[in-house]
Amino acid sequence: MHDTTPVSDVAPLAAAAAQTEPEPIEQLCIDTIRTLAIDAVQAANSGHPGTPMALAPVAYLLARQLRMNPRNPGWFDRDRFVLSAGHASMLQYAMLHLTGFDLCLDEIKNFRQWNSQTPGHPEFGHTAGVEATTGPLGQGCMTAVGMAMAEAHLGAVYNRPGHAIIDHHTYVICSDGDLMEGASHEAASLAGHLRLGKLIFIYDDNRITIDGSTDLTYSDDVPGRFRAYGWHVQNLGDQANDLPALAEALQNARAETDRPSIVIVQSHIAFGSPNKQDTSAAHGAPLGVEEVALTKEAYGWPTDEPFLIPDRVRDHMLEAVDRGDRAEAAWNEAFESYRQQHPDLAAQLESSIAGGLPVDWDAGVPEFEVEGAAIATRAASGKVLNAIGSRIPWLIGGSGDLAGSNNSLLEGAGNFAANAYAGRNIFFGIREHLMAAACSGMALHGGIRPYAATFFVFTDYARPAIRLAALMGLPVIYVMTHDSIGLGEDGPTHQPIEHLASLRAMPGLHVVRPADANETAAAWKYAIERTDGPTMLVLTRQKLPVMEPSDALSVGVTRGAYVAADSDNERPDVLIMASGSEVSIALEGRTLLAAQGVQARVISMPCWEQFRTQPTEYRDEVLPPGVRARVAIEAGSTAGWHEWVGEHGDVLGIDRFGASAPAPELFRQFGFTAQNVAERAQAALENCE
User: Fold this and answer.
1) Torsion angles phi and psi, residue 395, rounded to 5
2) Of residues 151, 432, 582, 634, which has the active-site annotation?
């Protein structure tokens, strides 16, 4: 063991040991992890070697202790591991390679190169065994909270006496940077409140950031902070290389079932490097050829064999494969016994894990009648959500302290709370960032279809997690209400002006802004059936008239755009496009135009992203290329609309912040009236003459 031996004394000690007896296998494995990281970063001339060098002992222990099967990374009852300190990716890649995951040594050698399986930060779906894309610091902490919530919920729903078929832990390695980010505060606060006893953080307190010592910016009492959150805290101090102490701490954390745990170790970044240990020089840059040689000498390691993996190490680490096979086989046997005793629950769990949908899952979705009262799309959404939720028992979610306003409660489904994890209504508190990231964690965990709800403007707080959900292709559903100046008197701080445009710019996210209650029902169906990425439903506070329910409407929503009302002529004079609440205004404008002898077609465009995927024939059928007079109407930024209206088209939008006033007055002041729509359409016609 290196323990706390000063770095200047490491080389002679290692050399003396080499002359007497073989190095213990544990230390040999630890130094293999270190040198793989050193060599990969050096070969790439890019990356972060310091933390893998520091945390190799922790990685070694986790590789030996994690409940996992390298031959089947998706085995459902495995432990989850999240590297929130994603810059230390070589630590995880070394673990995955050495324990037999499908990550060959050539991929280690190609670290950070084009088309390699070892990108700069671990990416879910790209590298076998990577559970989450973490990238920005703090994200992994929050995502892991969602994983632990999913485990707790599924265990409460499906486990029965003598049949603990859902029983695993979620481990997180986090850094000083993770805990500086406000995101980690949201994560730790809710996890402590919910008493998630199977969540374990390992905090690498190496006291170094890119700018230098954390003394520059950071003096938190981290143990005290986490105790205040209600966590089980073990502060090991300068014992990052003490395997018995680390092993005991991890065992204590697993034994603590009523609180989440954090194990704090004060590691030495770039441990063993004579000139760069405990400096920011090893944070985000290779050691350099000379320092690599000096460091390997300090380890007693050959300096002329890059990417060396001793046979003893390979054999020892690959024992993880047999351990994993045995663990999964035992679980499969236990699950078969469970299936015999509880066949309905077993079938339901298998269906939820597979991401399927029950037969007739949408049979109870309401159809809203034109003769009925006007209804806000947020209210219609609540009715549809409950109809769907009653038939999909693994649909679970909640709101950031706005459940009543979002209409996001599942009636009769119970509340998810500490030691009452079977409930399906999650109260996230005023933690929008955590809410979105935790829902990603639930989706990554599997067995759950999560949704998250808040005001549309607060996507500003949730956006980083939404972006990562899009990057990972996760089927999270976001329910975002109060979608425009239509929310009224709360004013410009709460009126989302630029949000539609900015979120439409995010690859992989489908933004759906339905025009009425029936489009809202169709939007929910679309969101449920879409499984290759996140979908955001953007809904009104104000009441809207109900359009005629029809197959054309429901199918049109699933295709992204459709003709909501056509002209009497075979070819319209002008096309009027809109989304959400502005569709009803466009329809009123069409009526005024008809009285003036102008034939207008109104197109509802709830989802641009889906409309772009449609065949050219369909897009041209909805937006005939020969009709140059085009007007778009949306109570938000005009950015992006010229893709649809063309160079000469007109966009009635809002390119300034809103104001505080009743919604009808705001719509009048900003020109969202049928009369103004008709006038803009007439002007568009004149411009095309």
Assistant:
1) -80, 120
2) 432
